[in-house]
Design goal:
The protein has 13 helices and 17 strands. The protein has 437 residues and is α/β, with parallel strands linked by helices. It folds into two domains: 111 residues, Urease, subunit C, domain 1 (Roll), CATH 2.30.40; 302 residues, Metal-dependent hydrolases (TIM Barrel), CATH 3.20.20.140. Strands 1, 2, 3, 4, 5, 15, 16 and 17 form an eight-stranded mixed beta sheet that branches. A four-stranded parallel beta sheet has the order 11-12-13-14. Helix 1 packs across helix 2, helix 2 packs across helix 11 and helix 10 crosses helix 11. The longest helix has 30 residues. It starts with a helix and ends in a 7-residue tail after the last strand. Bound molecules: zinc ion. Zinc ion binds next to loops.
Length: 437
């Protein structure tokens, strides 16, 4: 059986929604939204009608007349926000508690294999969509371009899922992020990372990723637990080549030194950035570099630690979270743009999409307003991904939207139960009747 056939077979059994069945030509759709979130301005603007032709928004206005034959979706009892975006996911990775990444790679490559791995990715993809995340940026740890294969399967309508902006294997210094090991029996490192050796090789790696369809380049200036680092020349070569080919660069960096080198090299976003200094934050603000703070909420942190052999005291969890919150708010106050990224790659019972939503809660716990957290997952993430049609609902944008009950700018709890999720003009989860008062 081909990979695609396997995936389709699984989903025929598992998929409960009616929405996915409705492929075929798309009718013109008129959505009547009770209250629309303007993601750029950061406010609810009241009732609006959204006319959708194909997979794009054609018009947004008040009191629009439904064209002949149009399907009317009555969301007048709901608030409508642009489809949410998680700018840092790993659809093809799950690391169990206490497990090293070498073990995960051995399981993925040696025991389970690509087909099984792709099926788990497809299942997670559906979870994102049902939680209202119509777009994710997948940043590596996805084998040899399985993220881009999953992206193609979703785009071709084989399985339901969000739009995927995939990087393929991250560009990393020797060893990747696997634990230092004297042997690499099954080419585990090269199975997960593209190891860079010199500036010419860095340029070649970027070209290879782009030729295979990468939408973004992921690079590892440093690759903890390895002590290896990319050189400044290698990073500059990666960024220059990616810019030449029109592809943004996301840098995984935690120490201030590595973050600074990556920012100076010209990357578009810093992922994590745990130990960043105010100086480096100022440089990021000046250069318009996004921070993607991959911090969980308290609820998520408590859920993660439940399976640990030793339960950390609550103060220890709080202390750990507080460090992340402090750096997020320092970044915000210094004018650094913030885009949502969950980086959730552990087992998490409520599901991956719930984890992305929970990460927004974490931003609010840090001190962002619910509106700013919503913007990080819509307007800001859309600009970071570089597509004018993402994270916003206006003429020519993608017809990706989520209906929720209540005002999400007053508090994010309405996002816990999205009533309807539409991607590219198609209802992918929920129904308009769920929005009735
Ligand atoms: Zn990550």
């Amino acid at each position: 059986m081909t990979l695609a056939a396997c995936a389709a077979a699984l989903l025929t059994v598992a998929l409960p929604t009616t929405a996915f069945a409705q492929r075929g030509p798309q009718p013109v759709v008129l959505v009547r939204a009770g209250n629309l979130f303007d993601s750029e301005a950061g406010r609810m603007v009241g009732p609006r009608d959204i006319l959708i032709r194909g997979d794009r928004v054609a018009e947004v206005g008040q009191g629009l007349t439904a064209p002949e034959g149009a399907m009317v979706v009555d969301l007048s009892q709901c608030s409508v926000i642009p489809g949410l975006i998680d700018a840092h996911t790993h659809l093809l990775l799950e690391q169990r508690s206490g497990e090293g990444l070498s073990n995960v790679a051995a399981r993925d490559h040696g025991v389970q294999g690509d087909v099984y791995r792709a099926l788990t990715g497809a299942q997670r993809a559906r979870g994102y969509l049902e939680a209202g995340f119509t777009t994710v940026r997948d940043l590596g740890n996805s084998g040899r371009f399985l993220d881009l294969q999953l992206e193609r399967g979703i785009n071709d309508g084989l399985v339901p899922g969000p739009r995927i902006y995939g990087s393929g294997p991250g560009l990393a210094p020797a060893g990747g992020q696997l634990e230092p090991q004297p042997v690499d029996h099954h080419d585990l490192i090269e199975g997960e990372y593209r190891i860079i050796n010199g500036a010419d090789d860095a340029r070649a790696a970027v070209r290879d990723a782009v030729a295979r369809g990468a939408d973004v380049i992921k690079m590892f200036p440093e690759a903890t637990p390895q002590r290896t680092r990319l050189s400044v020349e290698e990073m500059a070569a990666i960024v220059t080549e990616a810019k030449r080919l029109g592809v943004p660069v996301a840098a995984h960096a935690t120490s201030d030194a590595a973050i600074r080198e990556a920012v100076e090299a010209g990357v578009n976003s810093i992922e994590h950035g745990y130990e960043i200094s105010d100086d480096t934050l100022r440089l990021m603000a000046r250069k318009g570099v996004w921070l993607v703070p991959t911090d969980p909420s308290l609820e998520m942190a408590l859920e993660f630690t439940r399976s640990w052999p030793r339960q950390p005291p609550r103060e220890e969890v709080d202390r750990h979270l507080q460090a992340g919150r402090d750096r997020l708010m320092r970044a915000h106050r210094l004018g650094v743009r913030i885009a949502l990224g969950s980086d959730l790659y552990f087992p998490y019972a409520p599901g991956r999409g719930a984890g992305s939503r929970g990460t927004m809660d974490g931003y609010v716990e840090a001190g962002l307003t619910p509106t700013q957290a919503l913007q990080s997952a819509t307007w800001e993430a859309g600009r970071l991904l570089g597509d004018d049609g993402l994270g916003v609902l206006r003429p020519r944008s993608w017809a990706d939207l989520v209906a929720v009950q209540g005002d999400p700018t007053a508090g994010l709890s309405p996002l816990r139960a999205p009533r309807l999720v539409m991607k590219g003009g198609r209802i992918e989860a929920g129904s308009a009747s769920a929005c009735a008062s």
